[in-house]
Write a structure and sequence with these properties.
By secondary structure, this protein is of the alpha+beta class. The chain is built from 1 helix and 6 strands.
């Protein structure tokens, strides 16, 4: 006996596209990031950020471009996987440097600034 199921074709097509979407999302490169979190207890606003490859010498361009990272806030920077050095300066003039931060593929590596140094 044959039963007519007009919605079965739409259901199968929908399932196919859902599975395809899941595989597509699973294979996407999400990127690698260094996130600088300025602890609420720091009491200082970060005004300059420099990031360089650990094997490099030059700190390069200031990355906040006029923006700031107030206490209790964070800012993420897109980097390639590898080892990175980070330097920040606040409005008081404190400069803190964190060397050799390992960043993996498709990950966010968070470092915390406490107003004097990195935790």
């Amino acid at each position: 006996m044959f039963y007519h199921r007009p919605h079965l074709k739409k259901y199968i097509i929908t399932c196919f596209f859902v599975v395809l979407l899941i595989f597509t999302i699973g294979s996407c490169d999400l990127g690698s990031y260094i996130e600088i979190y300025n602890l609420p207890s720091s009491g200082e606003t970060i005004r300059y950020v420099h990031i360089k490859d650990s094997s490099g010498v030059d700190w390069g361009t200031e990355l906040l471009e006029g923006d700031t990272i107030p206490p209790g806030s964070s800012h993420s920077f897109d980097v390639d996987p590898g080892l990175w050095d980070v330097q920040v300066e606040d409005f008081v003039g404190w400069t803190a440097t964190h060397l050799g931060i390992p960043v993996d593929s498709d990950s966010i590596t968070t470092i915390e600034y406490n107003g004097i140094d990195f935790n």
